[in-house]
Design brief:
Shape: globular
Helix content: 10-25%
Strand content: 5-15%
Order of helices and strands: HEHHEEHEHHEEEEHEEEHEEEE
Distance between the termini: 63 Å
Structural class: alpha+beta
Number of helices: 8
Number of strands: 15
């Protein structure tokens, strides 16, 4: 991967590999100060038109910011496995540390100094930080020699190839043993890339500064829900991580970097502050190595906060949350989902409660159990309740002479809240009792 950088390799090796990670900084891109390709400083790009729309399966709710103290344990973690010894360069294969220290004045060869397309920007990331971090890990942990930053699988069709691309830190092959392969899958990490003329510093600030994600709303006849630019990017990151079944991620434009991770059920996310490419405390090489070590569950790595789910079959005994967007997925029998994450299985769905109920305990972070929109996972309780609506009929005496049938069914005892408001004839279109007519219930409301 790095053979074209032999002129940039440290031919005499590195006297101290651990010290090298604290000193090696990325070289700058060769853009002019007011380059016409880049938006003005301090502005969003208005070009991040990712092909994505609101979906009911996307369960992200809350984003948390990580304080600078997230890097406090980084030194001890890297000290525990990165050797402080002299490291030689493999001059035969060219496999080595591709970022020299100190940096030369000239940019690295065979890299376009002013990349104007994402495919010209990716080599800057692939052949500099990716190659260097992979080499550090290979030297420090020989068991990772089969691991590398690899592009998305060819089976994945990227709908925005000029706007978005991602790599995963993953092994070349997985062992045949299922349990071992599953354990290795959990140690992977995703790095998403957007060019700096698409993802400006201001765009990245809005992404990292976001604290909530809009819930899915069933579209009406006249309006269709849409996302803002930062929400589209969060949706894109969520989809990619769920599809790859991993939790740790990085988002970068090369000029700026944000590190983050999702909770076990993908309903919560955490992000660090933005690091520039020439950050020195920590350097991008340090931060990226530390994030990979954390994803691989190495001692001293960062541990995502626990997100609790209640283990109770009676939601009435739970505290009623402030926000509860509960949706039941109702696919047509003839349809098949082609979304790669639709068959995601969550260990949290075994708690014995309805999977889309927002649950909480007396401590920790609130998280709703994840329910996959896989039509094979059907909840008879809900479907029986829907079928009962067809059998319960009432004639509205308040309406005109034209006989109009209204349907009313008592709420499910185990799930006394609105699951979905659909435009279907056989469902309740106006909450009504024999003695009064109520307003249309909203998704997530508790029925009392």
């Amino acid at each position: 991967m790095s053979f074209i950088f032999r002129s940039w390799l440290q031919t005499n090796g590195i006297p101290n590999l651990r010290e090298y990670t604290t000193q090696a900084t990325l070289p700058p891109l060769q853009y002019e100060q007011y380059d016409s390709l880049l938006p003005p400083p301090g502005h969003v790009s208005h070009k991040n038109h990712l092909t994505i729309r609101p979906e009911a399966y996307r369960q992200l709710e809350t984003i948390h910011g990580l304080a600078e103290s997230v890097w406090m344990n980084m030194g001890a973690c890297l000290d525990s496995f990165v050797p402080q010894t002299h490291i030689r360069t493999n001059t035969v294969s060219g496999d080595g540390l591709t970022i020299p220290y100190p940096l030369p004045k000239d940019p690295p060869g065979n890299l376009e100094g002013r990349p104007d397309h994402i495919h010209r920007l990716i080599p800057w990331i692939d052949r500099l930080p990716f190659a260097t971090v992979a080499r550090i890990l290979h030297l420090s942990l020989p068991e990772t020699c089969d691991w590398a930053f690899r592009p998305a699988a060819q089976s994945h069709i990227e709908l925005d190839p000029e706007l978005f691309s991602y790599y995963t830190w993953s092994p070349r092959t997985l062992p045949s043993d299922y349990s071992i392969a599953k354990a290795m899958e959990r140690k992977r990490m995703l790095v998403a890339i957007q060019p700096p003329w698409i993802l400006t510093l201001r765009d990245l600030e809005q992404f990292a500064g976001s604290r909530c994600f809009p819930p899915f709303v069933v579209p009406g006849p006249e309006d269709f829900p849409s996302y803002s630019s930062k929400d589209r990017l969060w949706a894109k990151m969520w989809d990619a991580c769920v599809r790859e079944k991993l939790h740790f991620f990085v988002l970068t434009s090369y000029t700026h970097w944000v590190f983050g991770f999702f909770s076990k059920g993908y309903t919560q996310a955490w992000t660090t502050d933005i690091l520039p490419f020439d950050s020195q405390s920590p350097t991008i090489i340090e931060a990226l190595t530390y994030w990979v070590a954390s994803a691989m569950r190495l001692p001293g790595g960062i541990l995502p906060p626990k997100v609790f789910a209640a283990h109770s079959s009676n939601p009435w005994k739970l505290p009623q949350p402030n926000r509860c967007e509960c949706v039941v997925f109702d696919e047509d029998e003839g349809s098949e989902s082609d979304w790669g994450g639709s068959s995601l299985a969550s260990d949290e769905s075994s708690a014995g409660v309805c999977p889309t109920v927002l649950t909480c305990t007396d401590g920790g972070v609130l998280e709703r159990n994840l329910y996959s929109p896989n039509k094979k996972n059907v909840f008879p309780l809900i479907h029986n309740w829907l079928d009962e609506n067809d059998k319960t009929q009432m004639i509205d005496p308040i309406l005109d002479d034209h006989t109009t049938e209204r349907y009313w069914q008592d709420p499910i005892e185990e799930s006394p809240f609105v699951w979905e408001v659909l435009q279907r004839k056989n469902l309740l279109d106006q909450a009504q009792t024999p003695d009064q007519v109520g307003r249309l219930p909203c998704v997530g409301e508790w029925l009392v």
